[in-house]
Amino acid sequence: MKILFVVGIIFVVLALIKIYAYRRFLRHTFIFSHHRVLLIVLLSLLYIGEVAFFFLAKDRGFDHHTYIALGSCVIVSYALFLACIVGDMARSVGKVIEDKSHILDSQRRRFLKIVLDLGVLALFIIFSTKSIKNALNIPKVREVEVEIEGLDTPKTIALISDVHVGKMIQGEFVRGVVDRINTLNADIVVIVGDLVDENIEFVKDFLLPLNDLQSKEGVYYVSGNHEYYHGIKSISAFLKTLNLTILENQNIELQSFNLAGVSDLAGRRFGILPPDLSAARNGLNPNKPSILLAHQPKFVRHNDVSDFDLVLCGHTHAGQVFPLSIFVWLDQHYVHGLYQVDSKTQLYVSSGVGFWGPAMRFLAPSEIVNLKLKPKHYA
């Protein structure tokens, strides 16, 4: 019922965006001011494409090219909406200036209107191409320093999450991520869920570059909610054949700290491999600091993680496109970056490597995180 409500809200919002665009173009744009029917047809086709995308996105028979075509409708709609918003803001400012100056004649007003319309078109092109580029490019490395009490020597962790290997993100992208991680010479590599977003039989070959990940003390993985959507057991079985150590509610003692991992919260809903924090922290070496891997940051809100010095999460995509970060915050409470949970425990939420749905990211850049852990010194 909750999912149906969310989907309904999405479709209503998409429809309102089309109504806004229709009124905006009809009133203020010379291109469509005399072509009402054409405008209605174009916006209706755009809306149909968006609805089809969200309905068919989980269909395993949904081929790559159709996925791109329908996903492009979402990108176009979003970029069009942002461009119209900025254009209307500029028009409002111009209106205020015009009312105060009283010097613009009708010819100049028409000229400025054409300039504004062309500006909206330029913004549409910029927003759409930028959002696609942000999604499809190999993420840059973000360096984050974290002080850990009781750490005996500096350590580095290469952190990625939310790769979403599937219809859009495939082997070449994974290879680029692996190559960039390997330049960091990290002590360990961690993958914090949503690595796979498709039936495992479809993506096996795309995941093989993960075997080439280089680290001094291993590569570690915990599940995300999307692995459950596509068969957590079969996905886990294949991942165990790769150069990965899967932490399913368990921990391992490394040279300078304990590393624990819990399965995703989706396991409770599916009744398969639910998260078990008690099992994950059982046997932690109390003489070493402890780090926990958990896909969703709201796990920290609903569980006592005070045994851990640092929790590493993903899931949020930092909103993926502005202003969805607001809704992410309402659900997860944490969006992106380093947080102090309590006097001991810190939390880092990654914006992720890939994307979900259409190939778009805007004002929410992807990242490969190079966590530099340092011993905490007191003044």
Automatic annotation (TrEMBL):
Molecular function terms from GO: metal ion binding; UDP-2,3-diacylglucosamine hydrolase activity
Domain named Calcineurin-like phosphoesterase: residues: 156-318
Looking at the record's lineage, which domain of life comes first?
A: Bacteria
Q: Where are the transmembrane segments?
A: 6-25, 37-56, 68-90, 111-129
Q: Which GO terms describe its biological process?
A: lipid A biosynthetic process
Q: Which GO cellular component term is one of those annotated?
A: membrane
Q: What is this protein called?
A: Metallophosphoesterase
